[in-house]
């Protein structure tokens, strides 16, 4: 077994080192050996994750850009031999492009199914599973990532928040996420031991700490957090894992959307800062999904180095 091989290597290396003593040469060799043991260990961990993800069917909502797009690619790169990805969003042209890029990068081992889906439309969500080709229906992992292009619109404060923005923020970010979860849970619950599968909800620092100008978005994300926590408790007698990933500042289309397409205002959000990239979050999502089934990464908060709260950011002048 790979794990055994690493342990044996480490033990052999220790005895080799004590025999050599602490000469400069030994130290250099020591460093080389340490790095080779580390590489070997990393490979072992990667192999375990690849095996755990192999054969899975994964749904990612909001896959046409940002974190969803990167997550699809990260799953494909991590388990390129045998994976099914259902990538969903409203811009199906973007999803086709994603499918093509994945095929070019990893080949035919990953089957990608682009699906046009508006998660804020309960009827579309209801017909989502029945309309999938049979080979894609046995879903193992749901990544609830979508948020509407209206979401976080503006930074208006009460009483000036428009009814349309309030509706958009809740209907995609919260109700859409809940409806998607309810559509997929019956598939999980058919499995043994009360059910198995992963629900990965993308929340936000905004759901933990509210800030002025973000009241509705913060409330919508706080609702995601409460829903995730309650769901994990409701599913306690199953093998279903409920995982929440809460990013801090990530550079995506998010800010452009927030400022109604005004790129210069969006750029100002990141000025003097180095935000996270969508790939940074994708790596955490795939890591969480790739753990042993008994390991539930229930909750994560991911900041870039300069951030410690929604409003506490260090900017270099
Ligand atoms: N970026 C950040 O700083 C940040 C921080 C914390 C949390 N987050 C969270 O991370 C998640 C992803 O955001 P992102 O930053 O990657 O944003 P993004 O690049 O704007 O992506 C949002 C995705 O959601 C899709 N979408 C919008 N409305 C939809 C609907 N009604 N039905 C289905 N798909 C829909 C969009 O595609 P279509 O337009 O094609 O439908 C797009 O693919 C969100 O849940 C967001 O709240 C982001």
TrEMBL record:
Keywords annotated in UniProt: NADP, Oxidoreductase
InterPro entries: NAD(P)-bd_dom_sf, Sc_DH/Rdtase_CS, SDR_fam
Matches recorded under Pfam families: adh_short
Keyword NADP appears in the UniProt entry: yes
Keyword Oxidoreductase: yes
Top-level division of the source organism's lineage: Eukaryota
Protein name listed in UniProt: Oxidoreductase
Source lineage: Eukaryota, Fungi, Dikarya, Ascomycota, Pezizomycotina
